[in-house]
Amino acid sequence: MIFGRSERGKPPVEPVTLKILVAGGFGVGKTTFVGAVSEIRPLRTEELLTEAGRPVDDTSGVEGKRTTTVAMDFGRITLREDLVLYLFGTPGQERFWFMWDELSEGALGAVVLADTRRLEDCFAAIDYFERRSIPFLVGVNCFDGAIRYPEEDVRQALDLDEDVPIVLCDARHKQSVKDVLVGVVQHAMAYSARRRQSITT
């Protein structure tokens, strides 16, 4: 950079920053999702699971889980030179849901991660975003050994509207997560455009 300008003579690009939430049930892969794609070291607020939490933390299906998010995960990814996403992973357990209102302030949209072995765990997140008119898509995290169901079966099981996208993903792989994030940005932009049009007509 020379005097605030790039070497090619173009002015520096001031990127647009967008906030995306990553939500879903306990142990669905939210922390892994954020960590897989973040270009900075993710901020994590994880604590060890304890005996005291055993009665309220249902680890069936995720028996190997040893930690849990108690506030949020935070990461950042640059999709284009002029577009940066800030990712906020929400805590999954009900006792930490008071954080959701704070985290959702100013969010463009959300990813609801789902595990087909425990689909009921993402009902609360879906209900939350529907009630607040926050556009979201459902990312079905393809865990090893989990049965792959057709999109329409997942849509019916979750009682989703036809315009809510459903995508298969692997929260461990950067490109898969990036594809989901591109999808939620596109969906949120289209959702906002439809709302503006409905207001003006």
TrEMBL record:
<comment type="similarity">
    <text>Belongs to the GPN-loop GTPase family.</text>
</comment>
<dbReference type="InterPro" id="IPR052705">
    <property type="entry name" value="Gliding_Motility_GTPase"/>
</dbReference>
<protein>
    <submittedName>
        <fullName>ATP/GTP-binding protein</fullName>
    </submittedName>
</protein>
<keyword id="KW-0378">Hydrolase</keyword>
<dbReference type="Pfam" id="PF03029">
    <property type="entry name" value="ATP_bind_1"/>
</dbReference>
<keyword id="KW-0342">GTP-binding</keyword>
<dbReference type="InterPro" id="IPR004130">
    <property type="entry name" value="Gpn"/>
</dbReference>
<keyword id="KW-0547">Nucleotide-binding</keyword>
<dbReference type="InterPro" id="IPR027417">
    <property type="entry name" value="P-loop_NTPase"/>
</dbReference>
